[in-house]
Amino acid sequence: MLTRRKILKASFAASASMLAGSALAATREQMRYWDNHAGFGYMGPNDVDLLDHWRSAGVSYLSINVGYDPVPWSTTIRAIADYTKGIEARSDMVLCATVARVLTAWHAGQMALTFDIEGMGALNGDLSMVELYYRLGVRQMLIAYNLNNDAGGGCHDQDKGLTDFGRAVVREMNRVGMVVDCAHSAIRSGLEAMKLSTKPCIFSHANARALQDHERNITDEQIRAVAATGGVVGVNGLSLFLANGAAKVESMVAHIDYMAKLVGAEHVGIGLDCDPSNTGPRLDEATSSKYWPARQYPASIKEDYLPPSVLPQVAEQLRSLGYKESNIRAIMSGNFMRVASQVWAK
Length: 346
What we know:
The protein is an alpha/beta fold. The chain is 41% helix and 12% strand.
């Protein structure tokens, strides 16, 4: 009898074989960098200029955050409209609906882009919004951003697990081809989503709590659970979630190494969560204090980000630790691309 794990394992092998024989094989001499989450929040159409930080660093793919639970769902729609128009005006980057389109973009020397949403609050309680967002370019969505919403629990709130609506959303995401992202979510809610999902899940940007004890970081149980779905954890470069609260490449590599040793290099990737705007949250003080409680985000600690320009250094430090080149390439791009090939609609 085929179990879910056996099916996922077979799918994992098939996807790896497909990617090996694709255009990636033809460009194996070039290191690809797949950043699974940009950390800036929507301010207006000029935000598109921030993408030059990734483009100039040679990033091959970037997922752009277009909305999160602290802002109204209408802001997410506005962001998608503005970003889509701005990106379409560029010749060096392109929105990609499929993995095949990502490969075409790379062949043309373009940076491939998609959108992501941080929290199911952007659905406004309407399940049909999942497919609409997918059609508009959203390829992954969180359950909740730090606090509970009508779908499930946030990492800084009471952990009550998924609601009936949250379970329906996970099933709908599986149906349309959107990746279930458990970052920022409560432990129970994430574990329930991963158990329910029939496709690989991810943590787009999350670090190991064993190395830095913060509620935004994830436990060994969560890391093992997402790996069991065939999924990937994107390690971020945000100082608060790295060792000693400092944004250093060696600290980020330590989290990558920890997870790779725990579940295998095939389940680790990059999700920098970088905000080159340097403006922080665009919210009123009352809202900010709820979503970023002082007990976890003390004012005395300065937030800092590792920029995309450090990615070659990350790869080089992994080499110095003895990682095989094939594993380094998987961490830097191949693992998240594998998940996309398994989940996104063709």
